[in-house]
Structures are given as structure tokens and as C-alpha cells.
Amino acid sequence: MPLPFSRFEFFQLFAAYNAAFWPAVAALWLASVLAVLGLLSSRRPPDRWISALLTIHWAWSAIAYHLVLFTTINPAAWLFGTMFLVQSALFAWSGLMKRDLSFRPSRTARAQIGWLLIVYALLYPLINALVHGSFNAIPTFGLPCPTTIFTAGLLLHASSRSRPLVIIPIVWSVIGGSAAFLFGVSADYALPVAGLMLALFAARKPLCPQPMAAETAMESG
Q1: What is the C-alpha separation between 138 and 127, in angstroms, rounded?
Q2: CB 3.0-4.6 Å disulfide test: which of 35, 95, 116, 174 passes with 101?
């Protein structure tokens, strides 16, 4: 089935995104770096901050890219935008309202892959700039694909497995991964890896996380 847009139109959307939203994109990138540093250096990682950041990431991709830009060349973007808003709401519900989402850095193989995905997502604009020889009409930060890679990296550090949180990122790893091969966005070849790692992470037997109050008491004791 042919796509309703060309490769040129696809990359022109990135040019429009970068020109219109670069201050917000830069702010989102800086906030993401700070969250990662907090996860790396803090004895008690900033769980709610990371959950809030992921909530913003998915809402931003939904609105700024899918609903504002991508809908102009692809009617399916309305569905994609809705998916991303649902994922944003899931992070808000699980991480901010219920406070069920916590992150713990570790030295496990899973966590090391998570770090690789996080660093890759943060370097994503530079990787595309080197591949395409430009900072203009290229995918940068805050777009659906780097957002999915960044999210996968963080979820691989989650201390509990919330399966509903991984469904949409896995779905997008397939959708975005196929587009990467069709349009030659080589930086997005990491998407299938991110989706596979999330699937393996969710398939394992869930841990039984301690209640937050009990955990706090244990740490203070």
C-alpha cells in the first residue's frame, strides 16, 4: 500500500518542526539531560520528575508533531496523535497520580542496555546531523522516534513492570521502524531494538515493589 506522502514532504515536516519549535525542543532536551543526571547520581532518583518528563515528552510528540504537522500529509496522524496522548495520560496516571512508577539504576545487563538507549536518544539530533550533513530538515529531539527510544531506556530502569506502559512504545517501534527503512532515517534503526527490549522486559515475571511508605521507612532506618 503506497504512503500518502513522499520522502521530500516527510523531511520538510522536520524542517518546519525545527524552525517553529527549536526553543521548546532545546528546553526539552536540557530537561531530559537533567533527569538522566538525577537518575545517575541520586541515591533516591527523582521518580515523579522523570514521570512528569515522560508525560510531557509523549504529549509534546502528540501535539507538536502528529496533530499540528503530520496531519497535513498523513490522515493516520490523527490516530497516532491520539495514541501518544493516551501514553502521556498513562505516565501521568501511573507516575504522578498513583506514584507506582519508580526508577533505580543498577548494573544489570538490562540497565546497561537502557543507558545505551538513553544516551542514543540524547545524541539523536547529532547522529542525524552527521548522517544527513545538516541541522535543518532532519529529525531532532522531541519527535516520536527519539521519544520512544528515550522512554524505552528509562523504563528499563523501572523497578516494577507496568505492562500497559510498554504497549504503545512497542507498537510505535514497529511503525516508526518500518518508516525508518522506507525513508532511510538510519538513526531510527534503534527503534526495533528498543521495542524488543521493552517486550522482553514486560514478559518477565513482575517484581513485587514495596509500598513507598515502607521503602522510605527502611531507607531512613
Answers
A1: 10
A2: 95
pLDDT tens, 50-69?
Answer: 999 999 999 999 999 999 99
Domain residue extents for the chain: 22-205
Q: What is the pTM of this model?
A: 0.89
Dist CA 148 CA 171 (whole Å): 10
Distance CA 163, CA 199 (A): 9
A 10 A CB-CB count for 142 gives 25
Q: Rounded to whole angstroms, what are the CA distances from 67 to 76, 84, 102, 103?
A: 10, 10, 30, 31
Return the exposure string of 7-40: e unless at least 16 CB atoms fall within 10 Å of the residue's CB, then b.
Answer: eeebbbbbeebbeebeeebeebbeebeebbebbe
Question: pLDDT tens digits for 167-215?
Answer: 999 999 999 988 888 888 889 999 999 999 999 988 875 543 444 333 4
Give the list of residues 6+ apart from residue 131 with CB closer than 8 angstroms, or none: 138, 186, 187
